[in-house]
Amino acid sequence: MSATAAAKYISHVDFVAGFSSFYFDDQQAIKSGARQDGFVYTGAPATKGFRSVRQAGECISVVLTLSDGSIAVGDCAAVQYSGAGGRDPLFVAADFLPMLRTRVAPLLEGRDAREFLANARHFDRIEVDGRRLHTAVRYGLSQAFLNAASQAASVLPAEIVCEAYGLPIRAEPIPLFGQSGDDRYSAVDKMILKRIDVLPHGLINHVDDKLGRRGEKLREYVRWLVKRVQDLGDSAYRPELHLDVYGTVGIAFDNDSARIADYLQRLEEDAGPLPLCIEGPVDAGSREAQIDALRAIRRHLRSRGSRVRIVADEWCNTYEDVVAFTDAGCCDMVQIKTPDLGSIHNIVESVLYCNAHDMQAYQGGTCNETDVSARACVHVALAARPMRLLVKPGMGFDEGYCIVHNEMHRSVAVLARRTR
After folding, report:
1. How far apart, in whole angstroms, are the C-alpha atoms of residue 177 and residue 339?
2. Is 187 exposed, middle or buried (CB count within 10 Å of its CB: 0-12, 13-18, 19+)?
3. In whole angstroms, what is the distance from residue 170 CA to residue 402 CA?
4. Beta-strand (E) ranges in 343-413?
5. How many distinct helices (H) and strands (E) make up the chain?
6. Model's pTM, two decimal places?
7. Is the peptide bond before 200 cis (omega within 30 degrees of 0)?
8. What angle do CA 126, 131, 134 make, to 5 degrees?
């Protein structure tokens, strides 16, 4: 047998169009007043590439056939709010399949399946027609590389990541964070019944419908959350509250950092005994402006003794962005929004940078991913150790929780046995 054959190289590549677990939403159109009509939104789209304010989410599966006949898979997927906050544009499968099949597939065939990190880094940097591959493509390719390396070595993907970065193997689960979508009442009941660590995300993306012009609707919701935890939980169950407000607080309070801090303190009082995290209180329009805005809000909160934690999301899309927000100390936690970072080695390095620089790392992502990408993210998290991991894909909660929770605990059981 030749050295190349022994290496279990990539012998064939298929790119297959499919659906992701949610939808693409035009965030700018929604913030500008698009209203919901059943499950869809009325009005015209405002972001380039969108055909409607809400349209079906898509993915492209990367299917690698290895020289021994085994199959490795990764899914190219993009976030729900594509094209917003400095992110890559809308990811429509038909726009990318011809290029992938004719230009990228030949570059994959013959590569050593064992070399996860080398393969991931190479395809994260290459250019086709003078442009880097879309972040969704780099994301899916790197998942397939990780899956291929784990099969070639007959170990878990988490073990491949640990070996690549010299990380210790820890057979311990990561706290999980559930997302409710617009079903922010029934989904919370489900989360409480399953004793999730962090809830509910909330999808507070519209001032009039979900926040209130004075923030009154969100305050009422937070009070309901606390009471629901008390009614359905037990005395030992104290989940953290983590609410993503998509910049709506800034819109309601004219981006005035002092007024925003006043409001967040009132939310903290409403949260009572439950710790409170607020993600994306403002959207300042650029990375530098976002850092300045979050820093000002956080400074006001700390000067008043508030323990509300500010979470960065918008304009924090790449490894370089994560470093910039962390170094600025403008927030308490950074969402590492997995599809936006391209190759998953950037996720690992972002989490490690946060952990080394006193920044809480939240390994997030989007409801608009797939079961394949969600499982890959579990293994990245088990190796890199963020402080929380998003339950995904989809907005039904139960399905995503089943996928992420069960993959994590199966893997922890294997790691525990191997490290004993």
Report:
1. 17
2. buried
3. 22
4. 360-363, 388-390
5. 16, 15
6. 0.94
7. yes
8. 80
Taking every pair of Cα atoms in the chain, the longest distance, rounded to a whole number of angstroms, is 71
Contact of 321 with 287, CB cutoff 8 Å: yes
Q: Is it the case that residue 2 has pLDDT exceeding 50?
A: no
Task: Give the residue-averaged pLDDT of 245-260.
Answer: 97
DSSP secondary structure string for all residues of 231-272: HHS-TT--PEEEEE-TTHHHHHTTT-HHHHHHHHHHHHHHHT
- Give the H/E segment covering residue 144: helix 135-153
* Burial class of residue 275, CB neighbours in 10 A (0-12, 13-18, 19+): middle
Helix (H, G, I), strand (E, B) or coil at 306: coil
How far is 125 from 206, CA to CA, in rounded Å? 37
The first and second tokens of residue 23, run together, are: 């939808």
How do residues 266-302 score in pLDDT, each as one tens digit?
999 999 999 999 999 999 999 999 999 999 999 999 9
Residue 78 near residue 23, CB atoms below 8 Å: no
How far apart CA 381 and CA 158 sit, in angstroms, is 8
pLDDT in the model for residue 339: 95
Pairing of strands 127-128, 131-132: antiparallel
pLDDT at 307: 97
CA dist 70 and 150 (Å) reads: 11
Residue 1 confidence (pLDDT) above 60? no
Q: What is the mean pLDDT of residues 262-266?
A: 98
Q: What is the pLDDT of residues 183-202, one digit of tens each?
A: 999 999 999 999 999 999 99
Average of per-residue pLDDT values in the chain: 95
CB neighbour class for 44 (10 Å; exposed up to 12, middle 13-18, buried from 19): exposed
- Tokens encoding 373: 């990408």
The residue written with tokens 């995503």 in the block is 400
Catalytic residues: 337
Cβ neighbours around 337 below 10 Å, total: 28
Average pLDDT (154-167) is: 98
Position 6 scores a pLDDT of: 59
Phi, psi of 266 (to 5 degrees): -65, -40
- Indicate if the pLDDT at residue 4 is higher than 80: no
366 — phi, psi (to 5°)? -155, 150
